[in-house]
Design a protein that fits this description.
Elements (H helix, E strand, L loop, with lengths): L1 E4 L9 H14 L4 E5 L5 H9 L2 E6 L8 E5 L2 E5 L19
Parallel strand pairs: 1-2, 2-3
Antiparallel strand pairs: 3-4, 4-5
Helix pairs in contact: 1-2
């Protein structure tokens, strides 16, 4: 399996890009491939992907290992981290003991 990650943020992956990946798959004898990109594939690229057993994964361009939006097949995964502050408040209470 060959996985290629391409962070093209202004244009979708073209037919030529997927054709190149398809040749790399054939040249190495891999069973298939995965293209990871922030944008959807162009129509011609989708055609090659289907024919050559290449799966497309959309991953937001600003993703990190903890914060991401990932689309694969009909599934969407979201990772989100945030800092949460915890504060204890102590209120003293005076009591008269008999």
């Amino acid at each position: 399996m060959i996985v290629e990650c391409r962070r093209f943020t202004t244009s979708r992956q073209k037919q030529e890009h997927l054709a190149g990946l398809a040749y790399r798959i054939h040249d190495t004898g891999a069973a298939g491939g995965i293209i990871v990109t922030p944008l959807r594939l162009q129509k011609g690229a989708e055609t090659i992907a289907r024919a050559e057993n290449i799966h497309s994964v959309q991953l937001d361009e600003n993703s990190t290992t903890e914060n991401y939006i990932l689309k694969f097949l009909n599934d969407v995964r979201v990772g989100r981290t945030d800092k949460v502050g915890v504060e204890d408040i102590v209120v003293p209470e005076l009591r008269d003991e008999p």
